[in-house]
Amino acid sequence: MIIHVKYFGMIAENIELSQETLEVDSKVNLRDFFEAKFLFLQSINYQIAVNQDITSVLDGSVSEVEVALLPPFAGG
Description:
Number of domains: 1
Oligomer: single chain
CATH class: Alpha Beta
CATH superfamily: Beta-grasp domain
Strand order of the largest sheet: 2-1-5-3-4
Helix content: 10-25%
Largest sheet: 5 strands, mixed
């Protein structure tokens, strides 16, 4: 499965990358995948959005998805 990943805020700053395209197994747990790829993610609160829905589960029925890693937000 092809995932188009967008990184935001402190995540993008830390990895010095705002987006990339990856090929992953359709049954991969995205949280586990990204925390293995970027160890610092294990120590922060962040959310994962798949096709603009907050989740860490891929829908194996599609071949390409958009994934966003969202850091903690502040403000009011």
